[in-house]
Write a structure and sequence with these properties.
mainly alpha
Length: about 140
């Protein structure tokens, strides 16, 4: 598959994920939603490892960033659930879905990736959209 096909499937998966979380918040507490989502993550993790095979690769720096990414995912997810309990799914999900803006800024500042003028303008429009959506 191409990168675009994988990206489209990730888009579909994450779109369903956010919707399912909101549905859960309609009948469960934040703690219960978080627990059941972690249960789903555990099931998906085991299935993924069985499907792809165990990784026998290790590098301290890569492992540290991998663990940090996992912590960020879980903390972000808990905050996302809390936001969904208090806000509309359409607004919360749209604002949170603009997280790539932070990734983009970090990639430019730390990894020295470059942006075209068009990409920079698009980033500004995305930031403006987030502000307009949230207010």
């Amino acid at each position: 598959m191409t990168w675009l096909a994988y990206a489209a499937l990730a888009f579909l998966s994450w779109g369903l994920w956010a919707f399912f979380v909101k549905l859960s918040t309609l009948t469960l507490s934040t703690r219960a939603v978080f627990f059941y989502e972690l249960l789903g993550i555990l099931i998906a993790t085991v299935a993924s490892l069985l499907w792809t095979g165990w990784i026998r690769e290790f590098h301290p720096k890569g492992a540290l960033f991998g663990v940090a990414a996992g912590i960020c995912v879980i903390v972000g997810e808990l905050l996302f659930i809390l936001a969904l309990h208090k806000g509309k799914a359409s607004v919360v999900t749209t604002v949170v879905a603009l997280y790539p803006l932070l990734t983009l800024v970090l990639a430019v500042l730390i990894l020295h990736e470059t942006l075209t003028l068009k990409q920079g303008i698009a980033m500004l429009f995305a930031a403006a959209a987030m502000i307009l959506f949230a207010t």
